[in-house]
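Teaching assistant here, posting this on the class forum so everyone can see the example we discussed in section. The complex has two components, and the goal was to see what a joint structure prediction looks like when all of them are supplied at once.
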Amino acid sequence: MLDAAAIAELANRVDGAQSNRHTIAKLTDDYPGMTVDDGYAVQDECLRRWQARGRALIGYKAGLTSRAKMIQMGVDVPSFGLLMRDTCDAEGGVVPTAGLIHPRVEGEIAYVMARDLSGPAVSIDQVHAATDFIQPAIEILDSRFEKFRFDLPSVVADNGSSARFVMGGRMRRPNDVDPATIGIVLEINGEAAALACSGAVLGHPARAVQMLVAWLHERGRILPAGSVVLTGAATEAMPIAKGDIVCARFQDMGSINVRID
Amino acid sequence: MTVLDAAAIARHGDELYEALVAGATVPNLRDRVPGITIVDAYHIQARMIGRRVAAGETVVGKKIGVTSRAVQNAIGVFEPDFGILTSAMAYDDGATVPIEALIQPKAEAEIAFVLKRDLKGPGVTAADVLAATDHVRACFEIVDSRITNWDIRIQDTVADNASCGVYALGREKIDPRDVDLALAGMWAERNGEQVAVGVGAAVQGSPANAVAWLANTLGRLDMPFLAGEVILSGALGPMFPVGEGDHIAMRIGGIGDCSLTFGRRTADA
């Protein structure tokens, strides 16, 4: 475990890179002993600073939720990141990416919670009983690390590469659709750029919520009512550039359209 | 455009039929038959199917292959192909397929169409297909190749009946009015582990587009496309290998599910 001074120093680096939009070397270059838990400690320190500046935490995002990414990173649980209210953009609008380093877009299912959820092992039924609705979402990722060179402790500290997100389309009760078989087509400038099924996420996107609640429980926390959970990329993350039109279509859940600026 | 005479077509069609019956493979055709065309390959396919029909099988439908961008890129051809389904290829949902019936099988999850009216191209649109469709169903197609090591280009797979092996239809029959085919999501698992995911749009933008392509292609060839035929419209996601003792299952959003088990080899060798 790194000491508080090291965590604070790493939070300076990550917060500085995110605020000032510049790249940094992966954190383990200077702190080879850094663990995934250290990464979460950096995330927590960043959150403390962001909240002190008036930014609001509105939920969580799961990352590394596909089998391919888990194998690539050598993990068997997702990573979790923080969703800040000011990174949410409106559907039908513009997503500002000025200064983002190498933005990519991916499509996924968002859960919005109606009730608090807590405990070490909630079931999918309990997740759904506590869910207000699910909705299509797209996430804009932007790793702050040079040349995409990163490892798990570094990417966790960098808040799971979170940059912007958009929710939209049709809200559904999770029991009115099969959340594991929602087909997703991610189009960029009218071309199908990525094709997926929501079940690519851990077999069922509610598993990301289950695992998030267990992860929060280990840290003595709960998933509060009203939280948004982005359950993780169902599609591959596709590069985007200023001027691109992104459309994500979801079976029986409508679509999200945005312009990248 | 053909390079093969009737005797050569018969010889290659017979060779593939005999490989099928023996559970054996033959070297690819393209290296043995310089300049072989896709039309030659369809003639060889017709001969191979003719042998199956002569042996007592009946034609029950068609399969469309090479529908995804990934497979088209892999074999360097940018339109689909088709093969013929016979009665001997059909298994029930949940059935056990004898592994001896297959050589080097792989599974694909697809949407099957069953027509209520004949379709006659050219000029058939996706809307015509939907209007003529009685129902759609989830379908596992078990593709297989009589060509050694799946070393296929378009001529090899077309001649070998579009690499069709066997298939099973899910039990649920869905009116196409009740489902968004292009956005139907699919997951498939083998022995409880997820091995493929996909979506209807992977098939030519929508599976109905692939069926329209088939109707128009058959129209040009003056081949029938009849009410009641089963049409396998193409893979929603990547194919995955299957072997003896495997259990595979899949679900397609808004359409249904399907499963198969593969038998174990009997110890007679």
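For the discussion questions: Residues 59-262 of chain B form a domain with the Fumarylacetoacetate hydrolase; domain 2 fold (CATH 3.90.850.10). The mean pLDDT of chain B is 95. Think about how each of these relates to the inputs above.
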